Amino acid sequence: MVAGCGCAACGIGNARLLDFDLSAVEIASRTWAVLGRTDYFDMENGGNIVNVAFIEVPDGVVVIDTGPSKRYGDALRSLIERTVPGKPILRVYNTHHHPDHFLGNQSFDAELIAAPQAVIDNITLEGDGFADNMYRLLGDWMRGTLPQAPTIALDAAKESVGGRDFSLFYLAGHTSSDFVIRDDSTGVLFAGDLAFLYRAPTTPHADMPQWRQSLDTLASIDKALLLPGHGPSDAKDESLTQTGDYLDWLHGTLSDAVGSGLTMNEAMLLPIPARFEGLGVVRTEYERSVVHLYPALEDSLFPVIEVTQ
């Protein structure tokens, strides 16, 4: 057994262990998704749990989300250059401010990165804290990563990029600002984390009624295919149905638990229905959701009543 080896060969081996082996799946004509695992962040996956995408348009490439770190962003950019050689990146969209979707921004020209102003504000406000937490979770996978907010604030319903028209939708619920993009040529809808498929939704900034309204809006949008923020591409709106079903169960279960006087620890032990048992990290995300949602439910169901004498 060799301890404390400092040889060059060991350093090279460790570096290779931290390489992302990204691959692209063509989900529509000249449209690729890079599909992450349906896991939680850990040292084995390096944070590669998110879906990002890129599209070849007549004059270049459009990128949707950039992943959880500079290392991931560099790997994504390299993959794009190999898949669509010789074409410039014209636009990078960020769908929301959760760290797995924007911490790869450093790998791209800041002047090309766009999002609604509310997403930019959220990244500016919380980006440093998110980065710090990701360093704690992922260590050297995050080396060199700094939060980079988009520099272009969007508010129009459509944008033309490189000879291709995109419809832009400004929604909320998963966070206070969730940005959805449709490629009008292929009909692919990039839903960000408003939609999950075969993975339990995350809720650190969730507003359940708004999220439900956004799911209804997504269902009403004309589309050929939907790419959720986590899970495989979806041609049948299964991600919208599954996400809505889970959120309805989660909200009802926690509301009932609060109404029954259960503590947070007791609520965490409640059973998860069989139909959700196949969702990635469902127990972990359920327990996190109890922490995220329980205090506000307690405040709403048991408001403080001032007693005057």
Distance between the termini: 76 Å
Shape type: globular
Q: Supply the CATH class.
A: Alpha Beta
Give the biggest sheet. 7 strands, mixed
* Number of domains as seen in the coordinates: 1
Report Rg: 20 Å
Q: Percent of residues in beta strands?
A: 15-25%
Structural class: alpha/beta
CATH topology: Metallo-beta-lactamase, Chain A
Please state the average pLDDT score.
94
Unreliable residue runs: 1-16
Strand order of the largest sheet: 1-2-3-4-5-6-7
Considering DSSP H and I runs of 4 or more, what fraction of the residues is helical?
25-40%
Question: By CATH's scheme, which homologous superfamily applies?
Answer: Ribonuclease Z/Hydroxyacylglutathione hydrolase-like
Keywords:
alpha/beta, 7-stranded mixed β-sheet, Metallo-beta-lactamase, Chain A
How would you characterize this protein structure?
By secondary structure, this protein is an alpha/beta fold. It has one domain (19-236): Ribonuclease Z/Hydroxyacylglutathione hydrolase-like (Metallo-beta-lactamase, Chain A), CATH 3.60.15. It is 36% helix and 21% strand. The protein has 8 helices and 12 strands. The strands form 2 sheets. The chain has a 7-stranded mixed sheet with strand order 1-2-3-4-5-6-7. Strands 8-9-10-11-12 form a 5-stranded mixed sheet. Helix 5 (208-220) runs antiparallel to helix 6 (238-259) and helix 6 (238-259) crosses helix 8. The chain is globular. The N and C termini lie far apart (76 Å). Mean pLDDT is 94; it is low at 1-16.
